[in-house]
Amino acid sequence: MATNAPLIMRIMALSINTAKRAGVIIRDVLKQGDLGIVDKGKNDPQTEADRSAQRCIIASLTKKFPSIKIIGEEGGSDLNVCDDWLVGEQDEAFLKQICPAAWQDAKPEDFVIWVDPLDGTAEYTQGYVEHVTVLIGIAIKNSAVGGIIHQPFYKQSSGELGRTIWGLKGLGTGGFTPVKPPAGEFIITTTRSHSNALHQKAVDVFNASKVLKVGGAGFKVLQLLEGKAHAYVFATPGCKKWDTCAPEAVLEANGGTLTNINGEHYEYHADVEHVNSRGVLASVGNNHKELVEKIPLEVRQAVGAM
Ligand SMILES: Nc1ncnc2c1ncn2[C@@H]1O[C@H](COP(=O)(O)O)[C@@H](O)[C@H]1OP(=O)(O)O
Ligand SMILES: [Mg+2]
Ligand SMILES: [Mg+2]
Ligand SMILES: [Mg+2]
């Protein structure tokens, strides 16, 4: 069964276990205490956990799927990793599911895998570890189709640390229970570390009943999926394709929508520009278009020109 399953199913099943292994690395680096922080730019830190988790993920996926294009946030990594970091086992429970017909015949050259080994690095270095996620996004022919969002520091009721959420368009989601956000309120989730005056203007026009400021694209989309917020607004460039590919796929597999602030989907082919230059707008209801129209034209024009 496992080796005969369609490629997308095998990639998803290996990515689930690889994201979990990366989560262990992220917890271990924090435990050991020396984060090895390097500044890549303004408000853009990288730690030993980002570097090591990326090596683990890319080495494992490359070994099993050598002809598939993989793009990771931390650039070209040394893939000569210890055996302990090489994940070869696929998640068997995931493989038992039926592959949606649309993806059954996808070939290696149709795929791009977008890897954010640690989303929410600023929050990781500041102790907001529950905002941290590992993101593995799977694009087929330009579109975000499948995604894994692993939360290394999520405390399960059993006491176990970490949980792994997946989504595949046409199949659905797993690893959590989707909840609808409360009716009669409008709660926005947004950045806590990359705001500016223009972005704030876009948030303000919604006149939200509550604005949650949290780190990471993965964590914000989880808040939408678990009914903590109605919309995710990020009206500034800065996040990249590896930040949105997995969250977009998981959210949309559950009926939500993730686009730029003009309501257009991003493209995820191998040659696309990495920056999401027109920000992010994500929602769970069926009023995405209305939300887009609320963002003032001057904000949309200014974000597009940044
Ligand atoms: N200006 C920026 N420079 C670099 N990364 C950014 C920037 N803005 C957002 N990001 C990435 O998008 C994620 C979501 O942004 P925010 O938390 O501000 O809403 C951040 O955790 C960060 O990912 P990462 O932590 O993987 O570098
Ligand atoms: Mg980063
Ligand atoms: Mg990120
Ligand atoms: Mg990252």
UniProtKB/TrEMBL annotation:
<protein>
    <recommendedName>
        <fullName>3'(2'),5'-bisphosphate nucleotidase 1</fullName>
        <ecNumber>3.1.3.57</ecNumber>
        <ecNumber>3.1.3.7</ecNumber>
    </recommendedName>
</protein>
<dbReference type="Pfam" id="PF00459">
    <property type="entry name" value="Inositol_P"/>
</dbReference>
<feature type="binding site">
    <location>
        <position position="118"/>
    </location>
    <ligand>
        <name>Mg(2+)</name>
    </ligand>
</feature>
<comment type="similarity">
    <text>Belongs to the inositol monophosphatase superfamily.</text>
</comment>
<feature type="binding site">
    <location>
        <position position="119"/>
    </location>
    <ligand>
        <name>Mg(2+)</name>
    </ligand>
</feature>
<keyword id="KW-0452">Lithium</keyword>
<feature type="binding site">
    <location>
        <position position="73"/>
    </location>
    <ligand>
        <name>Mg(2+)</name>
    </ligand>
</feature>
<keyword id="KW-0479">Metal-binding</keyword>
<dbReference type="InterPro" id="IPR020550">
    <property type="entry name" value="Inositol_monophosphatase_CS"/>
</dbReference>
<dbReference type="InterPro" id="IPR020583">
    <property type="entry name" value="Inositol_monoP_metal-BS"/>
</dbReference>
<keyword id="KW-0378">Hydrolase</keyword>
<dbReference type="GO" id="GO:0004441">
    <property type="term" value="F:inositol-1,4-bisphosphate 1-phosphatase activity"/>
</dbReference>
<feature type="binding site">
    <location>
        <position position="116"/>
    </location>
    <ligand>
        <name>Mg(2+)</name>
    </ligand>
</feature>
<dbReference type="GO" id="GO:0046872">
    <property type="term" value="F:metal ion binding"/>
</dbReference>
<dbReference type="GO" id="GO:0008441">
    <property type="term" value="F:3'(2'),5'-bisphosphate nucleotidase activity"/>
</dbReference>
<dbReference type="InterPro" id="IPR050725">
    <property type="entry name" value="CysQ/Inositol_MonoPase"/>
</dbReference>
<feature type="binding site">
    <location>
        <position position="243"/>
    </location>
    <ligand>
        <name>Mg(2+)</name>
    </ligand>
</feature>
<dbReference type="InterPro" id="IPR000760">
    <property type="entry name" value="Inositol_monophosphatase-like"/>
</dbReference>
<dbReference type="GO" id="GO:0046854">
    <property type="term" value="P:phosphatidylinositol phosphate biosynthetic process"/>
</dbReference>
<keyword id="KW-0460">Magnesium</keyword>
